[in-house]
Amino acid sequence: MGRMATDVGGTFTDLVHFDAETGDVVITKALTTPADPSGGVVDAIALSGLPPAEVSYFAHGGTTVINAITERKGVKTALVTTAGFRDVLEIGRGNRPDLYNLNFLSPVPFVPRSLRFEVAERVTAEGEVLQPLDRDDVARVAEALRQEGVEALAIMFLHSFAWPAHEAECAALLRELLPDLAITASHEVTREWREYERSNTAVLNASVQPIVERYFTRLEGRLAEIGLDCPLLAMQSNGGTTAFAQARAHPITLIESGPAGGVIGAAIVGRAVGEANVISLDIGGTTAKCSLIEEGAPKVTTEYHLERTRAFPGFPVKVPVIDIVEIGAGGGSIAWFAEGGRLRVGPVSAGADPGPACYGRGGSDPTVTDAMCLAGVLDPAQFAEGRLTLRPDLAAQAYAPLAERLGVDTAAAARAAVRIAEASMIDALKIVSVQRGYDPRDFVLVASGGGGPMHAARLGRELNVRETLIPLHPGVFSAWGMLATAPRLDLVRTRFMPAAETAQDAVAAIFAEMQDEARAYFAGLQGVDTAELAFATDLEMRYEGQEHSVRFATDLARDDRAAILEAFHAAHERAFTFRLDDTPVEFVHFHLTAEAQVLRPDLAPLDGAGLDAAAARIGQRPVDFGEDGVQDTAVFLRRLLPPGFEAAGPALVEEASSTTMVLPGQMLRVDEFGFLRIREAG
Amino acid sequence: MPTSATTARSDDSIAREIVANRLLAIADEMGIVLARASMSPVIYEVLDFACGLTDGEGRLVAQSNGITVFTGMFSDQVQFLRRKFAGRIRPGDVFIMNDPYEGGTHTADVCICKPVFAGGEVLAYAVAVAHWSEVGGKVLGSLSPDSKEIFEEGIRLPGLKLFDGGIRQDAVFETIAANVRLPRMSQGDLNAELAAVRIADERLSETCAKYGAGMVRATFAELLESSAALSRKAIGALPDGVYTAADVIDGDGLVDEPIPVQVKVTVRGEAMEIDFTGSAAQRAAPINCSRSGLGSAVRAVFKAFAGPQQPSNEGWFAPLTITVPDGTVFSAQKPAATGWYFESTAHAAELVWKALAPLAPERFSAGSYASLCGTYIAGHNEKTGDTYVHLEPQHGGWGAGQSADGTGGLIALMDGDTYNHSIELVEAKTPLRIRQYALDTEGGVGAGRQRGGFGLLREFEVTGDGSFLYASYGRSETPAWGQDGGADGGTNYIELIRGDDTRRITRTPTIPLQRGDRIRIHTGGGGGWGDPKTRMPEAVLSDVRNGYLTAAQARAAYGVEIRGNAIDLAATAALRGTA
Q1: Alpha-carbon gap, residue A596 to A488, rounded angstroms
Q2: pLDDT, tens only, A472-481
Q3: pLDDT above 90 coverage of chain B, percent
Q4: What is the ipTM score, two decimals?
Q5: Which of B104, B143, B562, B572 might form a disulfide with B551, Cβ 3.0–4.6 angstroms?
Q6: What's the gap in Å between the CA of A219 and the closest CA on chain B?
Q7: Closest chain A residue to B545 measured between Cα atoms?
Q8: Can you give the pLDDT at residue A370?
Q9: Do the Cβ atoms of A509 and A585 come closer than 8 Å?
Q10: Is A614 on the interface with B (CB under 8 A)?
Q11: Which chain A positions have a beta carbon within 8 Å of B41's beta carbon?
Q12: Which residues have CB under 8 Å from B530's CB, separation 6+?
C-alpha cells in the first residue's frame, strides 16, 4: 500500500508517492489547473501511472486558499458585530508603517461597510451580560443579508474569545434562518483577544469557505471516480493534517499549507540523520522561505500577517501557522538599480513566464538564475535533464546594462547580483535564528526548492551552521514532507493569572479541558485512536506589566511551579537579554498541540546496487565561485552517486530539478539515505 | 576588460550595500526587542519609540520604523553627549537623558545611548528613545496641560552615565525610582531600552568582525553622501522661489485664543531654507517645542517630500536650513514647559507641508486632523487596587491626495507605526468601557474630487470612581484645509457627558471623573482635493451605499442626485451645470 501527497502550486501540481513495502518513490508533476485545481491533481495521478486503488494515505496541500485571498476571489461576505463596532474591521489598528508617505492607504477591508451589520448585545471583559443578544435584531439582519445575496458571513462580538455564548447563539440563529450561508463565528477560529485581529480572521475564513467547499467536493468526486478511496487529509499551516471535513469548516488554517509541507520535510530529514535542530530554507522562483526547527519541532505561532511588509500593515490571521520568514529573493528575482544607484535584487521576479532571460522565452531582465548560468553553475545542455536548453548569450545580454553601469564585465555584474541576493537570504536566515537567540552553530541547514541547493553551501558557510544538507527530491520537497505528516490540532487559550496565586491544579485543569476538546475533534477521524494522542503543552508567560509574553515548552508531569518559573526567566533572558527575578510573573496563553499517532514511513536507506561514482562523474567545467574565484570543477550526476561517496569541493551535483554547489574548501558526502551533506573541510 | 582595481571597487560597493542593509536590520531588531520587553502600553501597543544608530560623530545612519517626531533627533542628543563627555567615553558606558533643551522633546521621552567600540575607538552610537508612561511631575502621567515650567513635568536627566565602563551607577537608578510614581513600569521601560542598545552593540560588533570596521565606516560615509545627493536633486527639481503658508494654533489650554504661526520656504538651487520668523511668541502653556523638537518635525515632512520610502539618515538633511528666532512657540527657551510639544511641532510640519503641497502634489495630501489628541485617563483601578495610566493618542482623518481619497482613522504625522488600543485590552485592564468605536460619518470630511478620510468616534464610559481626565486637542476650531478647490475637513474635540450635561472640551488640565461619566471623542475628517463637482458620480454613489454620505449631502456637496440605489444622470447634470 502506498502513501501519496499532492501539492498544488501556482504553476505545477507536484505528486510524490512512497511505497511502504519496497521503499520506491515515484514523482510526477502536472500543470496546475487554476479554474478547478482538482483537475491537475487527477492529471498528476494519471501521469504517475500508479493504481489509485492501492493508495492508503492521501495528503493534499497547496495554494488554493491563499490565492483566493490574495487575488480577492473570496465570495460576497458580510460581517455582524456588537452594536457600535462595525467599523473596527475598517479602522484596523490605524498604524502607518510607511512613515513618510503622506498619501498612505490603509488595508482595504474584505467586507465593505454596506455589508457590515450591528446587533444589540454586550458582555464585559469579566463575562457579565450587560445586554442580552437581541434576537429580533438578528432576524432583521438575516433579512438584509438575504436581500443582499451574500454567500458567507462572519460574526464578531466583543470578548467572545473568553465568553463565546452570545456569538454561538447568534450563529445558531442565523444558521437556522439562512441555512445556505457559510457562517463563521470568530470564537470558532480563534480564542485569542484583540477584536480587530479576530474579526479579520473570521472574515477571511468565511470568505473562502464556499470556495474550499466546492473545491474539496469536486476533488473527492474525482478521486472516487478513479477509485482512490482512502481517507483524504488536508495539509494545514501548522505542519499537521486534518480531515477534509474539518478543513471545510476552518479553511483559513490551510493558508500556508504548501510551505508548511517543506518545513515538516526538513524536520523529517533532521530526525533521520540524528539532528534535532534544523534551519530549513526553500528557494523558489520568486521567494526564499526559512524556518527554524528546535528539538525536532517547528515553531508554530498565531502571529501570521497576510501581505505585511515593512511599509504595509497587512491582514492579521490568528490561526496556528508555522513561523516562516519569507523574502522576495528567488531564482527569477530581477537585479535592478534603485534610486541613488544602489544595486538591488527582487522582489520583482520574472516568474515562470517569461522566466529568466537564459530560458529564451522572451525574458530580458537579468535574474539570479541568469547569473548562475553565466557563472557556469548551470549546464546549458543539461538543465532540467535537457528539457530546456539554456542560452548564456541571452543571460550575458541581460547583464550587459548592469555591467556597464557598474563599470565591470558581465561576469562581475552577475557575481554582484548573486552576492546581494544571498545577503538578503542570510538576513532572513538570521531573523529566524540569531535574532531569536539561536546560535546557527547548533543547527544544520536543510535546503530545498529549485534554488536551495545552488545557494546552500555559501549560505551555510556564511551562517556558520554545522552542516548543510540537500534532501532527496529538493524540487518537490513540500509534497515529500506531506507524506509523513500526522493529523494535528493546535489550541490556544488566553487566561491571565498571576503565577504566585495560581495553583498547579488550575493550570492542569486548563490543559485537561483543551485535551478533551482535542479528543472530541479527532473522534470522527478514521484511523485515529483518540486514546493515543500525543500532547505537547507550551506556556506563554510575562512579567507583570508587560504585554508581550514569552513562549516555552512545559511538561506538567515533570515541572513544578519553581521549574516553570525558571524556564520562563531563562526564555525571557534569551529573547530580551535580561531577567527580573523579583518581578511578579503571570500566565497569559496556554498552548496545546495534539498529534495523532499514525504509522509514519521509515526512510529507506539508499540501495547502492548499480551506483558507481566513476559513472556519476560526467564532466568538468570552469565555474565562477565569486569570492573563491573561477575554478575548474568536477560535475557529478546525483542519481548515480553511491552512499558513502565523498569528494572535495569545488564540485557540482546535478539532478532533474536542481544543481548542488560545493565550494572550494568544503567536503561533500553522500549519506546512507542519499542526502548530500556538505561540511567545511578540516 | 576592466582592471582588477575596478572589480575591487565594485566588490566594495556591494559589501557596503550589504552592510547598509544590515544596519537597517539591526535598527529593526532593536525596535522589536524594545516593544516586546517593555511594560508600558504606550510603548508595547502604541509603539511610541524609535531606535537607531549614529556614526562615531553622532550622525544618524539607520533608524527603525517608529514615529516620525523622532526623525533625525538622535543626532542632536548624541552630539550633546559627545561634547559633555569628551575624552571620557569608554567601552561599557551607557548614557541616559531626557532634556528637551539638549536635543530632546519632552521629559517623558527618555533616551538611552550606548557607544559601540571597534579597535579601541568609538565606531557608532546605538540609541533608543521611548515615551515612558511616568516620569514624575505634577500629575500622574507627568504631562499636565497647564504646566508653566519644565520643573512641573517630572525628573530631568541632563545626560548621565547609567553604566560607567560597565559598572552600574546605582545612584542614578535609585534617583529615578524615587522620582516617578510607577517605578516598576519605568524600570521596565528602562530595561527594554537597555536590551535594545545592547542587541545593537552585539550585532554591530558581529558586522565589524565580518566586514571590518573600515568597511562599516565607509558604509556610514557612503550612506550620508548618497542620501545628501538625492536630497539635493529633489530640491533642485523644484522651481526657485519663496513659498509661504500661515495657520493658527487653536488656543494653548490656558488662554483660549488663536495663536498665529507662519513659514517662509526659500528654494534656491539645491538648497532649502525654512524660516519660521514671525510665528507667535512662546506660551506659558506646555504646547511649545524646543529647537530640537522643531528640527525633528521639519525633517519628518522634508523627508516625506525628498524621499519618503528610503531609509532615513542625517544625509537627507544636509541641504536643509531651519531658521527661527529664540523665544517663539517653535523655539521655546528654558524653563518653558514642553510636555505637549507635539501640538506645536504638528503645526510646524503642516506649515511646511502646506507651503510645498502645490509644488509637489504627488508627494503631499490635503490637511489632516493633525493633532495627536493626547488623552490621559488615569487614577485608581478598582479591578487591581492599583494606580493606572491610560494614555491614548487618537487616530483621525487624513486629507485627500490628488489621485486617491484620504484615509480614515489613521494616526497623525507626528506618530507613525502607532496602533490604536485594542478595546478588549482596555476593558480588561482599566475601569473603562468603550461604548462605540466608529468612523465619524456625521462629523463629515472635506468634499472634493477626492474626498478626505473620516475622523473617528470613540466613546468611553468610566466604570469606577477615582479616575480623572486630562487632554490637549489641537485643530479644535480651525479645520483641516482643503487643497486645489477641495473643501475643508473637520475638527477635534471631546464631549464629556455626565447625566444630561454635556461639556465640550479641547485642552484641559485634570478633571475628576465619576462612575458613569462618558468621554465621547471626535477626531476630524481630512480635507478634500479638487472641486467636489468633478468627483466621479459612481464614487459618490458608493459612498452613499456605504453610509459614508447621505443622499442629501451628495446633492449639496457633490451635485449628484441619488435615487434608490442609482445615479439620476439627468438631475445630476442639471445640478452640476453640465446638462
Answers
A1: 6
A2: 999 999 999 9
A3: 82
A4: 0.94
A5: B562
A6: 38
A7: A114
A8: 96
A9: no
A10: no
A11: 547
A12: B400, B402, B448, B449, B450, B483, B484, B485, B486
